[in-house]
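Researcher: I'd like a structural prediction for the single chain below. Treat it as a standalone chain; there are no partners to consider.
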Amino acid sequence: MRTLVALAALSLAAMPVTVLPADETPSTTSGVAVETSPDPTGTYWLRNREGWFWYRDPPTPVNPPKAAPPPPNRPAELVEFEAMQQRLDELKRVAVMNPTDANLVSYMRYQRFVMNKSEVFAERWQRLVWTVPELDYGLTGRPTNSMAIGAFDEQQQSRQAQVVRNLASTHGLLFIFRSDCPYCHRFAPILKRFEQEFGMTVFPVSLDGRGLPEYPNPQMDNGIATRLNASVVPALYLTAPSKRQIRPVGFGVMAMTDLVERIAALAQDPREDPL
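Model: Treating it as a single chain, here is the predicted structure.
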């Protein structure tokens, strides 16, 4: 028995023993320390304790910022125009904040430079309009020449009058008035001449039951003035009895030309909302 114990002691004494740092827990097998290979770089021993079942995500690589795309090539005229505007604005601000003679003269001279460019632009524009008829508003819209304006107005009035005459067979006019209204007395003769010239029937409606010299036998108001919100007299409405539609023409005294123009405009308006 003494011989076996002595042999065991000699065997343990002959085994190599690795000394671990104080904060590391040695691995044991049957109570005997197991030798481990040291980290050749030495960094393992400098790290904090790490568990067996945890890991760290690798650091996210930092991508270098992408270079901004080069600005598109801009026409030289745009660059020059913006620089001119900026220069003019700067000179104006300096002159406003410090209105010395020198600052005011600098701004006024540069403003004259810009105005000269604008004048050249306007002259070239006008000359180009003379050579391209479809760009001339005086030929496509209302003329600017005094002699042409008269011819244009005559042609337009003739066209409007024909529209009103064609409308007279299907439409009429509702005339709401009061016998004590001076404006109604002024407007009634104009409306009577319109009725006779264009053949459009007028239906007179009196708010007080009394008539006018041109319309001595009007209809008594049966509430239609309230329905149409005729708060001002004289009031004139274009009616289409077959469609039961009523649209306002105007209020107050109107000239003959105004009546023709407004009724023709209503006839050409595709919107026919009944009131």
